[in-house]
Design a protein that fits this description.
Length: 438
């Protein structure tokens, strides 16, 4: 059978990994796919570099539109990133009847509904395994492997940069800013690290997983995102002393009132496997009603790990593109006409536990004032620690862990506690998840 022809848009870190792995494993990949997968055209602004990587074996152009228009091309791989040009190119490829593979989580989380509708209408596939957790086949697991289950919740460490920063802060007792600089020097963090450290990248990935898990549209605009830039090494240390580790977690959960969709720093019991995922690694914990909890661990970024996911999509499309479009695996795991409009809950309606740290005057009655505020708002304390004041100091840190409570109640309590004259500065609030319940 003649090879399937692929056009590659962008031959940077991931694109060159795709080129290398396809070349190295050509024989095995074609034995699996049923025919050879051949990159026939590469578009990149830096055509010289593209020629160097491909060794002159393939057509190279600076104009990505040339690729999406070329009648020879069966599959377009979009590795350009961003929302604007990438979106136009993906829609143009679909309009021209091409199947698309993309690693672009930002694009799918914000414009996925439009893109999938266009693909559905043209009867082409849009595959995106590489968009979530790099090399970990989590899309495949959620969409196919766990298809018997009613998914209850997903909790993931899905941003390697922030996980690296948190691991280093804990291991070495360093401040956020110091570790961020190191991460930038090591090439883990971008020069503008906002998306990684403020939870936006994780929010994009979580939005995609939530859509597939619960059969809802992509709705990143409803995802709550809070990053790690305000975490202090004291909070990391206090959490450790209480038996918890702080991770930037993406959590999506089905509750009777709707769907939770949230990214924020989270205390997790240190004994949980996911709490021990360190450095740039990613992990996703999925709770299904039949299977129970399953966990997926691996490299969430990098040239060849991400290429592994891109090529898996190429093989899937190669196997399926001649199949009846109505019998393919649906983009969002559920049939397009069965996507639900279940509400995504605003953060104030979420119920979880909390770590609260406050700096207070060390004198009689202070604790009573604080606990009265909590009691009046029906917030139950699970554990409490008061730190020794430093020599000559009159203020101490108090750390409280609460039982589950609605976020709205905690917000109200924080406002009242901060208004007390005996409380200095702001109350630090970090959410806490046991991740062990049924
Ligand atoms: N920047 C991401 C991370 C990898 O740090 O995990 C690509 O999504």
């Amino acid at each position: 059978m003649k090879p399937i022809k692929v056009g590659l848009l962008g031959i940077g870190t991931v694109g060159s990994g795709v080129w290398t792995v396809l070349g190295r494993n050509r024989e095995e990949i074609s034995r699996r796919a049923g025919r050879e997968i051949q990159i026939a055209m590469v578009a990149d602004k830096d055509t010289e570099r593209a020629k160097r990587i491909t060794g002159g074996d393939v057509r190279v152009t600076a104009d990505a539109y040339e690729v999406v228009r070329d009648p020879e091309i069966d599959i377009v791989i979009e590795l350009i990133g961003g929302y604007t040009i990438a979106k136009d190119l993906v829609l143009a490829a679909i309009a021209n009847g091409k199947n698309v593979v993309t690693a672009n989580k930002a694009l799918l989380a914000t414009h996925g509904n439009e893109i999938f509708a266009a693909a559905q209408a043209k009867k082409v596939m849009v595959a995106f395994e590489a968009a979530v957790a790099g090399g970990i086949p989590i899309i495949k697991a959620l969409r196919e492997g766990l298809t018997a289950n009613r998914i209850e919740w997903i909790a993931g460490i899905i941003n390697g940069t922030s996980n690296f920063i948190l691991s280093e802060m804990r291991d070495k007792g360093l401040d956020f800013g110091v570790v961020l600089k190191q991460a930038q020097e090591l090439g883990y963090a971008e020069s503008d690290p906002t998306f990684d450290i403020e939870g936006v990248d994780a929010g994009h990935k979580l939005t995609i997983m939530s859509a597939i898990a619960f059969g809802i549209p992509m709705q990143f605009e409803r995802c709550y995102t809070e990053g790690i830039s305000k975490l202090t090494r004291d909070d990391i240390r206090y959490a450790e002393q209480l038996g918890y580790r702080i991770k930037l977690l993406g959590i999506t959960r089905r509750v009777p009132e709707g769907i939770e969709l949230r990214v924020h720093p989270t205390l997790i019991p240190t004994r949980r496997l996911i709490a021990n995922v360190e450095g740039v690694m990613n992990a996703v914990l999925v709770k299904g009603d039949a299977v129970g909890a399953t966990m997926y661990y691996g490299a969430g970024a990098g040239s060849e790990p991400t290429a592994s996911a891109v090529i898996a999509d190429l093989v899937d499309i190669t196997r399926l593109h001649t199949a009846d479009p109505d019998h393919r695996v649906p983009h969002l795991a559920f049939q397009p006409d069965r996507i639900a409009d279940t509400r995504v809950l605003p953060m104030e309606e979420v119920v979880t536990s909390y770590y609260l740290r406050m700096r207070v005057e060390d004198r009689p009655g202070v604790l009573a004032d604080i606990t009265r505020i909590l009691a009046d708002l029906s917030i139950s304390i699970d554990a409490m620690v008061q730190k020794e004041p430093s020599e000559g100091e009159h203020q101490v840190d108090i750390i409280m862990l609460t039982h589950e409570t609605r976020e709205k109640q905690v917000n109200a309590a924080i406002v009242k506690i901060e208004a007390l004259a005996v409380v200095a500065g702001k109350v630090t609030r970090i959410r806490l998840e046991e991740l062990g319940k049924a």
